[in-house]
Amino acid sequence: MLRGTAAVSVQRLAPEDLGPAAADCVFEALAARPKPVIGVATGSSPSPLYQALAASPRDFGSATWFALDEYVGLPQGHPESYAEVLRREIIEPLGLDPRTVHLPNPHTGDHQAACARYEQQIAEAGGIDLQILGIGRNGHLAFNEPGGALDSCTRLETLTEDTRSANQRFFDSPEDVPTHCLTQGLGTILAARHLLLIAQGAGKAEALRAALKGPVSRDCPASVLQLHSRVTVLADAEAASLL
Ligand code: GLP
């Protein structure tokens, strides 16, 4: 059984403190390098962070941003595509130049080449300084579903029915939820210099327990956090209840 030796710092916080505490990590990353690189997640978990960043008077112009993942099969401009979610959640509120915000491109017709290009873009930017993460209730990180390799690169992934049903809330009907995506791999995520995981609510408690206290295993993709040398977990009391 693999056991990690990671430096995982877990902070239990009141829900209203999650956003400001996460924003402090982003400010630290922004100040550490002249051209910082921030990895951004979508979903509900990072919303308080993005609100805290938007409320700050800081200038984010020096940074480059890379999304964790993007759906395959939605038309360009679909409101639930992560390109549009990031436009609403960070590009407009933070006043970012859209050319500094990158996502894997699902519209090229060649997913393998698009994923390789994405890895290359991250490398050319100097690697990711701070990767913001949520956790799926099945333990997924980005869209890395249970059962996949723990050292994967950006690639085409098939969404599990559990993930599709969790994300159904953003779509009109179950069949509208995409079946595939392009996602940073677990190896891509592990290459970031600092990982920041935000978890809220009782629905994440078991996934967080498995990720941090269970074995490092394909059954729980987020258990790779135990293999990283610098992980900050910000969790409310419900999400941290099984730690
Ligand atoms: C989504 C995203 C993940 C996210 C996770 C949890 O499907 N692809 O990047 O972290 O599932 O989402 P939420 O924060 O909405 O619970």
UniProtKB/TrEMBL annotation:
Alphabetical list of InterPro entries matching this protein: Glc/Gal-6P_isomerase (IPR006148), Glucosamine6P_isomerase (IPR004547), Glucosamine6P_isomerase_CS (IPR018321), NagB/RpiA_transferase-like (IPR037171)
Residues of the Glucosamine/galactosamine-6-phosphate isomerase domain: 22-229
The keyword Ubl conjugation belongs to this UniProt entry's keyword annotation: no
Superkingdom of origin organism: Bacteria
Keywords from the named record: Carbohydrate metabolism, Hydrolase
Name of this protein: Glucosamine-6-phosphate deaminase
Lineage per the UniProt record: Bacteria, Bacillati, Actinomycetota, Actinomycetes, Micrococcales
